[in-house]
Amino acid sequence: MKILICVGSTCHLCGSKRVVTRFQELVEENNLQDQVELAGKFCMGKCGEAVNLTIDDENYAVTPDEVDEFFKREVLAKL
Ligand code: FES
């Protein structure tokens, strides 16, 4: 599974740094380093009020406070 998180300027203002950090922690806590690849990406042209990311080319937007719930639903449940 490949997760690309936008680190463009609007997403940065929406908390992309916190989102990236929490994703990294969750991947480690769940020992998913072999199954989940995390990377940053520049503006995806979808700037809004949350941080844009893609999981295997599907688009999502999450706020830093939603990451844990999102990870459970869209990552853990789909591996
Ligand atoms: S800065 Fe992230 S989509 Fe534009």
Provide the descriptors you would attach to this structure in a database record:
Glutaredoxin, binds FE2/S2 (inorganic) cluster, single chain, 79 residues, alpha+beta
Write a structural description.
This protein is of the alpha+beta class and 79 residues long. The chain has one domain: Glutaredoxin (3-Layer(aba) Sandwich). The protein has three helices and four strands, in the order E-H-H-E-E-E-H. Strand 3 and strand 4 form a beta hairpin. The protein is globular, with a radius of gyration of 11 Å. The protein binds FE2/S2 (inorganic) cluster (FES). FE2/S2 (inorganic) cluster binds next to helix 1.
In which range does the helix fraction lie?
A: 25-40%
Please write the string of helix (H) and strand (E) elements: EHHEEEH
Largest sheet: 4 strands, mixed
Hetero ligands? FE2/S2 (inorganic) cluster
Which geometry do the CA atoms define? globular
Gyration radius, in Å: 11 Å
Given as residue ranges, the uncertain stretches (5+ residues, pLDDT < 50) are none
CATH architecture: 3-Layer(aba) Sandwich
CATH class value: Alpha Beta
- The CATH topology label is Glutaredoxin
Q: Could you tell me the strand content as a percent range?
A: 25-35%
Number of strands: 4
Question: How many alpha or pi helices?
Answer: 3
CATH superfamily descriptor: Glutaredoxin
Q: What is the subunit arrangement here?
A: single chain
Average pLDDT figure: 98
- How many domain modules? 1
End-to-end distance: 8 Å
Lateral strand order in the biggest sheet: 2-1-3-4
Explain the layout of strands and helices.
Elements: E1 2-6, H1 9-13, H2 16-29, E2 37-41, E3 51-55, E4 58-62, H3 67-75
Parallel strand pairs: 1-2
Antiparallel strand pairs: 1-3, 3-4
Bound molecules: FE2/S2 (inorganic) cluster.
Residues 6, 8-11, 43-44, 46-47, 52 line the site of FE2/S2 (inorganic) cluster (FES).
